[in-house]
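Slide 14.
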Amino acid sequence: MAQRVEDLRARKAEAHEGGGETAVARHRERNRMTARERLQYLLDEDSFQEIDLLTRHQASGMSIEDTRPYSDGVVTGFGTVDGRRVCVYAQDFTVFGGALGETHGEKIHKIQDFARSLGIPLLSLHDGGGARIQEGVAGLHAYAGIFRRTAAASGVVPQLSVILGPTAGGAVFSPAMTDFVFMVKDLSHMFITGPNVVKAVTGEEVTLEELAGATTHTALSGAAHFSFPDERSALDEVRYLLSFLPSNNLEEAPRVVSDDPADRACDDLDTLLPATTDLGYDMKKVITSVVDDGEFLEIHGAFASNILCGFAHIGGHSVGIVANQPQVLAGVLDIDASEKAARFVRTCDAFNIPLITFVDVPGFLPGVRQEQEGIVRHGAKLLYAFCEATVPRISVVTRKAYGGAYVVMNSKGTGADFAFAWPTAELAVMSAAGAVTIVHRREIMASDDPAATQAALTAHYEENYANPYVAAERGYVDGVIEPNETRRVLAQSLALLRSKREESPKRKHGNIPL
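Slide 15: predicted structure.
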């Protein structure tokens, strides 16, 4: 018996060495943590339970036949984050460069199946060079199984991907299909074809960081949600994000204890807005004033910054917030903003997280490029997402709410449960100046002093129509509230809506305009 135990310990020790001392040392020289070190840092202390530690690839007749390290380049298992169960896998770059083969893929399949059947989040740490060439189509088949399981778990359990090295070729589609993607500057790279292939095919010269780095994917492509300076910061944020999410689609997000009174007045909001509507202001100040302890976790912050999306707590309960940002492009909706917000709305709806919108939108961004590249289709994504959402939905109009953009931003007509407006709100087809120019065009042109006539008509329109009271009279707004009341009103409304249930028509799924 003693000899068998020693043999087991030896095999475990060999497995924990990954690709061997030389490979691990080379990995650390690049200031990178090993796969097991990453999991140890991410999970609660002593909570990790590894499975399939002693698996090995079964490939034969290839250049890797005599190299069969235990674990086969991926560490899989279970653990806890703040006491909550999670499934995890971390690719080990020290073994075959983290490349995926048949056994490697089957280990991931198993932990994916566990996550979905147990109803717990799946956290994946990616650090590999794509499919293992030596195993040919077997590796590709394994990838297909990962993709199918990712799609099956979408909207069932939260899936978070952390890119901690190269993620190349078909491997990029695995994180791209998950709910949230984290990257590290100068360390993480996601690409289908690398710089050498790009140059060979198109003649374009580009660095790996420019083509596939964290800044590119968080600010330009929108393929990643977060960027951090180092691995530990990224893993810390994974833990923080999980605190806003439920374990699965049948549960509520965990409640957080806060000493911030739900009925606290937000007196700073009474003087936040500029004197004139053509000046911007920071909508983040509205959000942080209203939510618990001023804590707002922004999602996709570097991408389409004319709209804000993120998580917060009100009364200890998780909420998803979508808000126009008047400081950037006056808060207009464009292609990227519409798509960013639509994705976030659907994520919140999938995981039972109430939605709050802060609306200050002058319209959709005009322009040839926007029209030709599909602002109609992309704007419809956001509209569809709100119309389909069945979670509690509350809208607060702070200032401008013009035209179709107002409708798209969670208006009462699209199914918002409650719509509130500040006294500064303007709910209209367009601005006063624009409306007067169209409606009174002949009167202005026939006037002896067109400028004075237009100014007088604009002032009359602003006084009588550019306000929230016409909408309130018709029930399109449930209440006109003082800015300082916003937190209290939202907290009370959310408490009332907590028992909301909505039956959807029986269907396979809708057909969102992708």
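Speaker note: The chain has a mean pLDDT of 91.
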